[in-house]
Structures are given as structure tokens and as C-alpha cells.
Write a structure and sequence with these properties.
This protein is 23% helix and 25% strand. By secondary structure, the protein is of the alpha+beta class.
């Protein structure tokens, strides 16, 4: 306002106090909004990390079941262990194909894989080579946590007749090799219940020797080699 005696303009103390109060109110509102955005961003990032970890663990679980192969192994004492066992204290163990061999070493590309639930952590261990390492007390298992916050997990194993069992091999089929499919019901603290069914491959195709240059070209009437793949339980 203008001072009538000096002709100078300025702000009174009351006007300054009102301006400061308004600025402080706007600053508090802006800080509250910024803090809310930061908190929401942290929550979204945490949930994204949990979802990513869950997807990675479920992908590893599905891969192990998909690449299971009918190959019994020998334990440390020479006894035979079935190619696929499920139920009991541990969730399941199996022999699988597809073990990484980046250096092309002359070694088997099979591994013995074990899964268990330890507390609320779903853990996985891998044994190489497959023979002589199962039940070996001198070799400590390296358990790697794949899923956290697991509150419940149950498995069902289906035979060729789509009959479900809680243990494998079934009591009435002690010589059964691989189940037709494995169903996993899983509940985690931060996700709704999941149910996954993975079909096991009943027979992997055998590697064929490369044909010679003089080998005849097969005609359209020649027989074809088919690989039987187990389907989902009906």
C-alpha cells in the first residue's frame, strides 16, 4: 500500500504474514503430494520385484518338470533311485535334461534336481553328476531359494489313466517311470492362489546321425517318427 506522507509503496506486516502463511500452506500441500507419489512408487517397485521373482521361480519349476526324463540314478551306496519321486517330506526330485554346458565339455547334460519347502521358502538343489551323489552325506546340498512367502503348496501326480496320486511312484505302481502330468497348487502371501499343471514328456526323440550325401531322399509315403507327449489331465 502507499504511504500518504512519503509517497512510497510497500507491504504491511499483516500482508507479509498472510503471504508467508499462504506460501507455507502451498508448500505443505506440495510436499504431501510429492511424498505420496514417492511412497506409491516404492510400493509399485516392491510389488514389481516380488512379481518378477515369482515369475522366475515358477519358470524354473515348470522347466524342471517339463525336462524330466525317465532315467533312474544310483545313490552313493549303489542303490537305484527312481527317475521321478514326489510326495513325502520333500516335494519332488527328478532327473532332467538341458543342463548348461557352455564350454562343450565331454559330460552328461543331465542333472538330479530336488525341490523342498523350508519354512515359507521354496528351495531347489541340483546334483551333478546324477549318479553317486544322491543321499551322499559327504556332499552338502546347495539349496537356492526360488520363491518366498509360500504359505501352502500341494502336489498331485497323474498317471496314464488320469488318476491322481499324492505320492509318486504310486503305491500300486512301484515301477512307474514318469507321471503323465504334475499339478501344483501354490499360495503366497502377496498373490492369489495359483494352480499349475505341467505335462511330462513321455519320450524324448533320439538324436539321429547325419545322412550321407548318397542317402536316398524319403518320399511322401515314407513313415514318420512321432514323439508321444502326455497331455493335461481331463
Amino acid at each position: 500500500m502507499m504511504n500518504p506522507n512519503t509517497g512510497q509503496t510497500g507491504f504491511t506486516l499483516l500482508e507479509l504474514l498472510v503471504a508467508i502463511a499462504i506460501f507455507a500452506l502451498v508448500a505443505v500441500m506440495a510436499y504431501g503430494g510429492l511424498n505420496t507419489v514417492i511412497m506409491q512408487s516404492a510400493i509399485v517397485q516392491s510389488q514389481t520385484e516380488q512379481l518378477t521373482a515369482t515369475q522366475a521361480g515358477l519358470r524354473r519349476l515348470r522347466e524342471d518338470l517339463t525336462f524330466a526324463v525317465d532315467r533312474p540314478v544310483r545313490d552313493a551306496l549303489g542303490g537305484e533311485v527312481p527317475a521321478f519321486t514326489g510326495g513325502g517330506l520333500d516335494l519332488f526330485s527328478l532327473t532332467r535334461l538341458g543342463v548348461a554346458n557352455p564350454w562343450g565339455l565331454p559330460q552328461s547334460q543331465m542333472a538330479r534336481v530336488l525341490w523342498r519347502l523350508q519354512g515359507t521358502n521354496l528351495q531347489r538343489a541340483e546334483l551333478l553328476p546324477v549318479d553317486g551323489t544322491v543321499n551322499a552325506s559327504v556332499q552338502a546340498l546347495d539349496w537356492q531359494t526360488q520363491l518366498r512367502g509360500v504359505t501352502r503348496i500341494s502336489l498331485k501326480f497323474f498317471d496314464a489313466n488320469n488318476q491322481a496320486f499324492e505320492v509318486w511312484p504310486p503305491p500300486n505302481q512301484p515301477t512307474a517311470a514318469l507321471p503323465k502330468a504334475t499339478e501344483i497348487s501354490l499360495t503366497q502371501t502377496h498373490l492369489p492362489p495359483l494352480r499349475i499343471t505341467v505335462a511330462q514328456v513321455s519320450a524324448w526323440p533320439q538324436a539321429q546321425a547325419p545322412a550321407s550325401d548318397t542317402a536316398p531322399i524319403p518320399s511322401a509315403t515314407d513313415g514318420t517318427i512321432e514323439t508321444e507327449v502326455g497331455g493335461r489331465p481331463q
